[in-house]
Amino acid sequence: MKNYKKPTIFSLSSAPGKAGVSVFRISGPSATKALKSLTRQKFFEPRRVTLKKIYNKNNELIDSCLLFFMQGPNSFTGEDCVELHVHGSVAVIEKLTSELYSLGLRQAEAGEFTRRAFENGKMDLTEAEGLADLIDAETEGQHKQAIKQMDGALRHLYEGWRENLLNALAQIEGEIDFPDEGDIPDNLSHKALSYLNLVLEGSEKVLKTADTGEAIRHGLDIVIIGSPNTGKSTILNALSKRDAAIVTPTAGTTRDIVSINMILTGIPVRLSDTAGIRDTSNEIEAEGIDRALKLSKKADILIHVIDLTEDNSDNNIKSQISDGDIVVYNKVDKYQKQTMLKRGISSNEIKISALKEKDIDDLRALIEKTILEKYTVGNEPTLTRVRHRNCVSEMFLSITRAASCLNKSPELAGDDIRSALYALEELAGASDIESVFDRIFSRFCVGK
Predict the structure, then answer these.
(1) Most buried of the four, 50, 215, 329, 433, by CB within 10 Å?
(2) Looking at the domain assignment, is residue 435 inside a domain?
(3) Domain ends where: 106, 123, 140?
(4) What is the Cα gyration radius of the chain?
(5) pLDDT tens digits for 27-62?
(6) What is the reported pTM?
(7) Quick check: 292 and 257 in contact, CB under 8 A?
(8) Is the pLDDT of residue 274 over 60?
(9) Is residue 361 part of a domain?
(10) ∠227-254-324 over CA atoms, to 5°?
């Protein structure tokens, strides 16, 4: 939806302050007019880099710069666009900014260039979100996921679903609109089921990986939990290779949550040490234990630490271990019994001495293995935001209802399919969800 009545916007797209080069971006109907005023020239060959001098209205030289002119709609925003690569002097930046204001241009708001690209059909909302994630990406995993989404992986997926839903709807409406026509086969709407099943299978598969996509984007929470004096703080310090948590022989030393940030398998991780779980009358320690239990329920990966030298003190911890949790039997160097440990609850078990570097390396390898098994993204598109999950879940429920009533009431099935199509429109940003747009684009940096 092109709208050339919009104001022409500009922004410093590079970091502010002194630099070798600073980049100004201009977009809108008056971009070419502004360029002519700055350079005192009348013609610019699109998509060609040129070296030009730029002047203010008083014909004073501002700078010599590299100039890029991109004529709409063949530009990032779909409008006439200009990029000026000037010397990164604070004085140059201030003079050029002042001149652009005097030419009637407006300072761009956060994300306004990308929003115009979306509104002009240069990208859908999922691709815009992928671009935002790429800008924010700090790890290899985040970069890989953002690149796929920005390149249209999720768009290609939902376009396939949309095509199947339209085919299903055509089958149903053929029976409803022409029930007495001789050339319309009986029970034509039943043929819609195959199209619906294709979408159900595909969306169910994607919904199962939604946790993975969101975790890669935000990072993983890995929580260490156990009784007092089992070595939790020592393990945290050893894994982070710094003294993040206080370690003493006194039970209950850790009373609040101590967290450190790491990168494991290309994914950001927040590793947290927690208060030792036990019955206590100490009000402060009890609060720390309550926080530990609450955090453990939200953890993406739980690490249970059990003291091998204590036979009975960890029974409550053992009862809380779930399949897929990591179980660390610590203090193997002080353990007198030589029998092998067998529990059969979790396959992710390891015996270590937290004081030995090799054992810590083995534990780190086990944590990385668990991350790779639970949070590795393959070549398939993933849902990376709660918004994505909600839209696809709504579509899935609508199609499930449509499939269940297809034989009894094709009319109702058709309505459910239309609801599913609307959910896809919300995913793409094609429906009127202005408040969602505001939230998404406001998180971009100014100049993008």
Answers:
(1) 215
(2) no
(3) 123
(4) 30
(5) 999 999 999 999 998 888 898 999 999 999 999 999
(6) 0.71
(7) yes
(8) yes
(9) yes
(10) 45
